[in-house]
Amino acid sequence: MARQHINRSGEMAVFVRAVELGGFSAAARECGMTPSAVSKLVQRLEERLGVRLINRSTRQLQLTPEGCAFHERAASILADIDDAERQAAAGDTPAGRVRLNASASFATHVLMPLLPDLLGSFPELAVDIIQTDAVVDLMAERVDIAIRAGPLKSSTLIARKLGSTSMTIVGAPSYLECQGKPESLDDLRTHNRLSLNYARAVDGWPVLENGLPVQLPPSERVRVSDGEGLRRLALAGVGLARMATFTVRGDIDAGRLVPVVEHLNPGDRETFHAVFQGQGGTLPSRVRVMLDFLAARARLSD
User: Is residue 260 located within the same domain as residue 118?
Assistant: First the structure.
């Protein structure tokens, strides 16, 4: 019965602030408590959970692995509480911050041009955009939505298809003038084929050889960590790049990049999904409206 009188959300809030502010004294000042009171609260929390959350052998606040896991879940729970209160007060008006992870290419060419309309339609909504082509752990990074390209691995995450795009091999006019425009697969093998430096489902360029698809490995001379960097290398005349067409359509139309060996294109397409945690089939309204907006407005087909 005594457990019912414990203010667990209050304890979580103090613990989370202590972690985020880096110490008991800072958390005490913000929460209107004394440092000793914060220390005792954390100690009671550890005793009730039966695990040590913070190592006290150093001057700096240092979390144990159990403390890290508890902090992540506590922060997520507190965010859900805040979201529930905002929804109740605003009549379910979408409000709060959405953390969205996307590749630099998707963020640059799809997401950012849509932000004015999104923010204008939902004035209580805020957006954090984390740009990386690497696959992130949604729970560990506290990400609400991640945009992923290519085949999806089996997981507990829910996926919503946003669309697909064709792929195009392109080069800058300056590069083609210097190195020559490839006309055949043998020509293509002699060119500097730019690549990405992280693990991918298909490590190479799918091309046609005698009408059959084969994998042409990249040159490996210059590699970069994201698709937008790959585009900029191509624009600078460093080499040829095989890109999602929606990322280079504007460059092609403006003459900054030129498609090459289109007759060798096998016609494969790259599919994009928004993945998220379902949490029992319910979603905060801030996440739901972002998913609906992207599904309706993200134009990838080309």
Answer: no
